[in-house]
Design goal:
64 residues, alpha+beta, 3 strands
């Protein structure tokens, strides 16, 4: 997962394992900043060590 390529936008995001199953869902007002310091990033990486994780998102309003 190349965190630096994520957009700077409000989003609902989905983290997928190597089998394209959703393993985490979140919401943020700034996607790239959220993933630079995400509290679960290392945990998610350990969960799926041998295969890469991927992230998809839907842009949304920044109103929370």
């Amino acid at each position: 997962m190349d965190k630096d390529r994520l957009p700077n936008c409000a989003a609902i995001y989905f983290v997928f394992d190597s089998k394209d199953q959703i393993i985490y869902v979140g919401r943020t007002i700034n996607l790239v900043e959220r993933w630079k310091a995400h509290h679960r990033f290392n945990q998610l990486k350990r969960f799926n060590r041998k295969n890469p994780l991927s992230i998809s998102w839907l842009t949304c309003s920044s109103d929370i």
